[in-house]
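Dear support,

We are seeing what looks like truncated structure output for some complexes. This example has two components. We would appreciate it if you could run it in full and send us the complete token output so we can diff it against ours.
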Amino acid sequence: MKARLMEILTYMPDNLRNILFKTFEIIGDEIQEIRIRNNLPLIIGTQKGSYVVLQSGEVSNKSDKAYITKPVDVQRIFRAVCENSVYAYNEDIKQGFVTIRGGHRVGISGRVVMQAGYIETFRDISSLNIRVAREIIGAANLIIDKVVKDSKVINTLIVAPPLEGKTTVLRDLTRQISDMGIKTAVADERGEIAALYKGIPQNNVGIHTDVIENAPKAEAALMLLRTMSPQLIVTDEISTQHDALSILQCFGMGVSVVATTHGCSAEEVMKRAFFKQLLGGIGFKQIIILKKDTICYGTEVKGEVVVIDR
Amino acid sequence: MIIKCFAGIAILIGCGTLGILFAAKSKMRVRQLEQLQNMMMQLEFNIDFLELTLSESLFRIAKTTDGVVKDIFLYIAERLRKNPGSDMQLLWNRAFSKYQYDLALSKEDVLILTDFSKTLGCGSRENEKNNIKVTQMRIKLALDEANHEAKKNVKMYRGLGFLTGIFMIILLI
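Here is the complete output from our reference environment:
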């Protein structure tokens, strides 16, 4: 984990690199995100809360002696995450994030330039949010037996509120299923599952896995169906009618589907009109709810997993 | 007498060689500017059609060229690959300082490239293409001037070298 975290430092200007190196030494394992804003304190987000980073690299709740990020720092980091080639990352920038080495995601905000009603690029970057890639091998241990029965993948919808580890579980589930020899295809719209960097998955998603990243789920899923002949399609965060329709098409073609969505309970999910058509029949056979303390940070998974058989 | 003859020949060869070396430097400037002009064309293609990052692009370009220009591009590309957080302008300045003794370029020529590095990689594809076009034009002007200088200087340096040698022999005799 530390080595992967240290990749982030290569994108930092010298002053910030020295400060964050010390911070990583102190609380590296807990870091979820690093927030860098123009003329504001450098902030580290952990599961316990947010802390400001001091000039010494230590973290604190008080903002005295905090390291204040200069606009030139933000600009330098932005250029660095684009490998000093902003033009080459313009499609990613339009989506609002860039995936860097190690699979970490850098979210971008600032002043957007619009052209013909579409985002053309960002002109003045105001802040960056580096979301630390978190790969927990074994995160899906508790549910793997419920998802794969007799070497067959059950159509499964994984439900949890934001930041509860849906993607972490889905990623490990993908790895475990793929390593069983099941041909798996990942429609990774936001690049969070495999985190491709120059075509190489930064996360372990298994040896029988093919990935299409950055494409809309619907297009990616159909493309994978046509070209990679998968037995299973994995996708993250079904949130629109369009996503639901693409999943529905997959069900009709004899492919298993494992997907996630935001929510706290099965009832909450079923209230959404477009989900009704996905549940039952040839659709999702089960919903797995990840409760608040289901995923812990570290290498083991504990807590309760609720499985609702339909 | 024999010693004088040998000394005279040595002086003539020495001065002549110096003249040839000076002439070669003039020609070398033209050659290096031509390499840079070619590099700009490749860079434009790599950015516009292949959408390669600068590091990838400079590695590719380095493979197609030779001499000190190749060394400079490899130096920049390697550092960009290892450390994407490098300050671009600083990196180019360092590269030109490191290889300054092997470069036949004038200060003005180097300035064209350090100006080019100021905004390189910061903008959209269109901005990069504009930056490259402006730099290409500046290199072309420098190349015209270097060609003109070379035509004038090559003959002059060669002639001057041998003439200086002959003049020194006459003085010594």
